[in-house]
Amino acid sequence: FLQSSKNFQHGPALKDLIPDVLCQGFYNLQTDEIDPKKMVLYKHQEEAILRIVREDRNVVISTGTGSGKTKSFLIPILNYLLTQQENGELGPGVRAMLIYPMNALVNDQTRLLRKILDGQSITFGSFTGETKEYQKDAEDLYCKKGIRVQSNELISREKMRESPPNILITNYAMLEHIIIKPENNRIIFGEPGKNDWKYVV
To answer: Alpha-carbon distance 171 to 148, whole Å?
Structure first.
């Protein structure tokens, strides 16, 4: 049978939270995915953003498909990174780790970040069983898939060890792999950015 669902209640436009809650750097992100001048938030997104950014609280977001859960946590993460960037404090090192149960979800999130962060200096990378050890192999794989390698996307394990990304996307199995293997655990426990870790999703 078919059942219609109620529309999600709308909140303010994203630009209405700038600069009182979110930083001015959001105006540099004007992509189809996040455009402060056009994007209207759902009420639950606004509530999540306020609790995370203003109150520095943990949140659980439980709402339907297509209701913007990803942006509910991604906007606060980007706000943190953009603020560090504005203050000249953004360097190598994981600030946020996104953990998913399946590679398909990791790949979806990576594609989204590729769109949002195109041309930005905020770095990101996915570490899964599919991530190649060496940069040349990773570049060859991306070429075969027809994916343009962005300067701020780390696509090989060796590059992530050299300069850990600001946003690390992984799955449960590979998180254990990162923690247990000494050569990999510096990605999240190493010197770069060790005092700037902020978010786990």
So the answer is: 23
DSSP 8-state class, residue 25: G
Q: What is the distance between the alpha carbons of residues 24 and 194, in angstroms, rounded to a whole number?
A: 26
Tell me which H or E stretch contains 184: helix 182-189
Instruction: Give the Cα separation of 52 and 55 in Å (integer).
Output: 6
Q: How far apart are CA 33 and CA 37, in angstroms?
A: 12
For the segment 25-50, the average pLDDT, to the nearest whole number, is 92
Confidence label for 194 from pLDDT (cuts 50, 70 and 90): low
pLDDT of 4 higher than 80: no
Instruction: Tell me the residue type at 162.
Output: E
Residue 23 CA to residue 90 CA, distance in Å, equals 15
C-alpha to C-alpha distances, 46 to 15, 41, 42, 59, 116, nearest whole angstrom: 12, 6, 6, 12, 19
pLDDT at 1 (0 to 100): 79
DSSP labels for 26-81? GGGG-SSS--TTT-EEEHHHHHHHIIIIIS---------TTS-HHHHHHHHHHHHH
Q: Give the integer Cα–Cα distance in Å for 15 and 13.
A: 5
